[in-house]
């Protein structure tokens, strides 16, 4: 009876979790399970692999059901073999214990260098939780599906010891939330086969100590040489430098050729010197307040970026540390965009050659929404970068609070990454070897599975938030512990001396050597390659230090216009667009032939087509940008007879020439901040591509204001970083309420200075065509902000004849076009921008006000003084100017353009305002009130000047 039980005891229903885990292993590799299990599963399936390989893709349900039936059939044995059943149950409990450590072991891991609190008791990790007693500890159980040993059996004591060493030592691993069984098994094998402990050579250990010495040495040198100056010290987190060193060297060995790094200010100076190889002397000059050249504003030293090339066993690796403001995590999407541009330049679709590395603080990682938005981009088609290695410098204190209840609502600061099933390795910063090992595992996982991964270095912050802060005022007990801590370098140095790796004077000799290098201002990274230049490097010099010009040759020859128009209005014979879309295509074909005027959507398309045909890639992203929020674009056509996206879509702009540049259009996730940051990063790494972010509605830019303020508007004056990103922001007062009326033009005008950006509001199809082409044809790169229309997209008055595309250029000011206006009789000049122009023209016709001229300012910044003055001089008897706008008086461009207009007025002329009164809201919410206001502002534009009037 006992022999019979042992032969089929695995079929009892109580073993279901154990059996299912075995079955997962069998599906992946039948040879990995014992013979009896393999025979059983083979008989159950009776289904060959689809591809002829050993891999099976069979549902678990039939196996579980069959297992339940067999359990019922064997029920009689339960009554007769209770002793043997107890053994089977214990085997199941062993599997449950193993699972508990894999799920919960990180919570009992030895992670805190300060050891401020006792490790919490977790009952599920105790054998007694499963009714095991001391007498059970030496019983042998199956160790199938673990990787602790090649043997199939271990005693319970050995299993518990292996589990604790693997999951509760200096590394606490979280990976069981991953749904892919292959990835989970990878982590189990990687951790359990090593017991989460590396085996490093003596030379490797010495190198780790050298990196810790460099990290601590720089901080102490700066602390004594520049007393009290802010540097946001890394002291307490020195293992991070060892982690970065390992990441770079191992990445190089695995074929990575570029690493793009984003991080905030904590430890940034240390990375600049000890990782990227910035000359210490150069850093010292910044501490001594030496102003950088050619930067109108500049930035503090701990926001600066840097790039270098270092040697690795796999060849040179280019390192780029992105410039970053104090908005901590806002650099995340910028880094990803930069990586994407580099991938595209290399043709590196999987991201095996370019690696994004994000360095976070614990509080910011948990607290800032752009982290989640950026993570959400990770596996999407338009923003995929092959997985990011995230490193958290977790000083357990955040900014000034030391209580986790005040810094987050989650157990770990890294819990947000579980939304994309990224694994996390929490590691004790006082165990540098564990930190380096965790970094190795993280990179290996990223390279193999092309997914995000996190290394959470639990450390501490020796000083305050900055070097002028006294942290013991708010964290007295924590800083008593920190005051007693000898430092990670000392702890590890003593460990190496005690183990015989170094002589007693070894650690101190390293300290003296590093101090001497600092005094001499020498490189601390060996070897930094000073003369290496990659063939993929971008030369920005043709775009820099150029004098501003509004002019560019953007006209397109008629024959080329017609050829491109034909290409973008041709679809495959077996492709059936929606009837409404087919009408758009047919209308565009007629426009291309010159039979009707060109509308806005066609003007856009012709700009894109002409650019990609000339070798300029175009990248357009945003919510609904393929179709266009207002269904004017139809850049991506959908076959009405096919559902599959890959088969059922056609993009005409990808078929305009045999050797054209790429045209990429992406309907983004519902994000503004991360997506705009991504596109800024992309444009900053590729000056030869037209990169556009289109907001679904212009006011959605509000959600990305930090990117606009900290990068787009000020990146050039702070860091000398040119960028040609284009923003399309639908803007127009159509009576649709406060939301979606205004793109907040006034905010962009307020940020405009130092020729830092271009702000335009085109009013015709030819104007959008020329301004988009101008953005690439001119040999300098500035952000371009376009206030795009809504109702004008289909307004016949905003269409343009074909001749305006084959001749001319973008007009910064469009003068009076009514030939019936006699210049000598004009007494009033109304200047405006945007849709209101067409309303003013109709109003003038109603009033028969032939003494009023109307001009459009299409470029609001840089203000076109020469063009505006030239228009004003056409009217010799001009006495009044009026600025008319749709927006409320405290919004729009009135407060900014009034000074520009005043400069171009003649003596005695007056300037007045016509528009809505000042308002706390962008627009009213009632249609009838909108119409009343619109009528009033149009009347005001032609009425006697009153209120605030400027006189020259």
| Average pLDDT, all residues | 89
Instruction: Please give the alpha-carbon distance between the first and last residues.
Output: 112 Å
Structural class by helix and strand composition: alpha/beta
β-strand amount: 5-15%
Q: How many E strands?
A: 26
Question: What count of domains describes the coordinates?
Answer: 4
Task: Give the spatial strand order of the biggest sheet.
Answer: 3-9-10-8-7-4-6-5-11
Fraction in helix: 25-40%
Tell me the major beta sheet. 9 strands, mixed
CATH-defined topology of the largest domain: Rossmann fold
- The CATH architecture term of the largest domain is 3-Layer(aba) Sandwich
Radius of gyration computed on alpha carbons: 34 Å
What is the molecular shape?
elongated
Q: What is the CATH level 1 assignment of the largest domain?
A: Alpha Beta
How large is the count of helical segments? 34
Extract low-pLDDT stretches: 1-14, 47-58, 73-80
The CATH homologous superfamily name of the largest domain equals: Thiamin diphosphate (ThDP)-binding fold, Pyr/PP domains
Produce a short descriptive summary.
This protein has 952 residues and is an alpha/beta fold. It is built from 34 helices and 26 strands.
General description of the model:
- This is 2-oxoglutarate dehydrogenase E1 component.
- Keywords: Glycolysis, Oxidoreductase, Thiamine pyrophosphate.
- It holds the Pfam family 2-oxogl_dehyd_N.
- It contains 34 helices and 26 strands.
- The protein is of the alpha/beta class and 952 residues long.
- The chain folds into 4 domains: 2-169, no CATH class; 202-219 and 229-264 and 272-287 and 303-396 and 412-529, Rossmann fold (3-Layer(aba) Sandwich); 558-806, 3-Layer(aba) Sandwich (Rossmann fold), CATH 3.40.50.12470; 813-951, 3-Layer(aba) Sandwich (Rossmann fold).
- The chain has a 9-stranded mixed β-sheet with strand order 3-9-10-8-7-4-6-5-11.
- Strand 5 and strand 6 form a beta hairpin.
- It is elongated and about 110 Å long.
- It starts with a helix and ends with a strand.
